[in-house]
Amino acid sequence: MSRSRKRDDAGFGRVVEFVADSVDFEPDYYNDDYLGRRVTARMRRRDADSYDAYLRELRSDSEEQAALLDALTVNVTSFFRNVEMWEALRPVLRELTSEHRRVRVWNAPCADGREPYSLSMLAHDDPDINERRLRITATDIDGAALDAAREGVYETTRTTDIGEELSPLSDPEQYVERDGDSFRVRDGIKRPISFERHDLIRDEAKSGFHLVFCRNLLIYIDTEYKRPVYDTVTGALEPGGYFVVGMTESLPRDLRGGFETVDKRRRIYRRREAGEE
Ligand SMILES: C[S@@+](CC[C@H](N)C(=O)[O-])C[C@H]1O[C@@H](n2cnc3c(N)ncnc32)[C@H](O)[C@@H]1O
After folding, report:
1. How far apart are alpha carbons 104 and 226 in whole angstroms?
2. Is pLDDT of 271 > 90?
């Protein structure tokens, strides 16, 4: 359902307005399908049979506000998410680290850090990638996710199997210290990465990167804000630099002329240099 149709539902509009005013979350960035699904899931949990009934609960219960914020913040991620993309990235990293003394990578958004750590681990694991040349800037809007990322400790739970997530590596224990269900990322893997808070819609542009990841955020973002995010992340690339989006995302049509497709299915693109067809 489009933004206008869904927000025409006055009750839904009132819930969104309350979120905008009272919860530390910017609903305008996100599309209504996504917001609607998250709010409805909370309504079901609270047995609220209308948006207004749910709004009353939200107003009177700060725990429900926190639960809704948690439901709205999509920081689902994993180590080596879509493992075939990481395989396809090996030749790109081999090439970049053989050509440049410093390979600057921007990982946005990085959620709890498992994506930039996957990159650092892959670089250490592949003998033909010079991991000492990598510098990774990993950013996210969510301060709590960044704290978890800096800490770099991940637990296997009923729903998340960290050992399984790390299975693409030949010897994961070179890169994480395992204590039962707890996995602590080793210092050597952390070293090339700096974590920073950055809002891809509001904050200043960045520049000078040889590789930019922007995976699994744009699917949730409202049409109006997609373009500024694409402009920010692609504008940060050096000519000839590589760009990776999520496997269910795609480069907007009008940006495609500026990029060569390196791997269509794995969504890896390369920014054309001046004069390149
Ligand atoms: C689904 S996760 C994707 C993480 C990782 N890239 C991956 O593919 O596994 C989406 C992340 O986007 C972050 N996010 C949401 N809005 C953002 C914004 N405006 N600027 C930067 N990060 C944002 C969320 O905090 C969340 O951590």
Report:
1. 24
2. yes
267 lines ligand 1 (CB under 6 A): no
State the DSSP code for 253.
Answer: G
Q: How confident is the model at residue 135 (pLDDT cuts 50, 70, 90)?
A: very high
**Tokens, residue 39:** 């709010």
Q: Which atom of ligand 1 is nearest to the CA of 30?
A: 16
Q: How far is CA 28 from CA 3, 20, 226, 253, 277, in A?
A: 10, 8, 12, 24, 38
| CB 232 near ligand 1, within 6 Å | no
pLDDT digits (tens, 9 = 90+) for 198-223: 999 989 999 999 999 999 999 889 88
Binding site membership of 109 for ligand 1 (Cβ less than 6 Å): yes
Q: Classify residue 60 by burial, with Cβ atoms within 10 Å: 0-12, 13-18, 19+.
A: exposed
Distance from residue 251's CA to the centre of ligand 1 (Å): 17
DSSP lists the bridge partners of residue 212 as: 106, 243
Cβ of 145 less than 6 Å from ligand 1: yes
pLDDT in tens, 139-197: 999 898 999 999 999 999 988 999 999 999 989 999 999 999 999 999 999 999 999 99
Nearest CA to ligand 1 atom 24: 75
User: What is the Å distance from ligand 1's center to 219 Cα?
Assistant: 10
CA-76 nearest atom, ligand 1: 1
CA neighbor of 50 nearest in space, from 39, 66, 34 = 39
Domain spans of the chain, in order of start? 3-72, 83-271
User: Residue 1: what pLDDT?
Assistant: 44
CATH 3.40.50.150 fits 83-271, yes or no: yes
* Distance (Å, whole) CA 21 – CA 40: 19
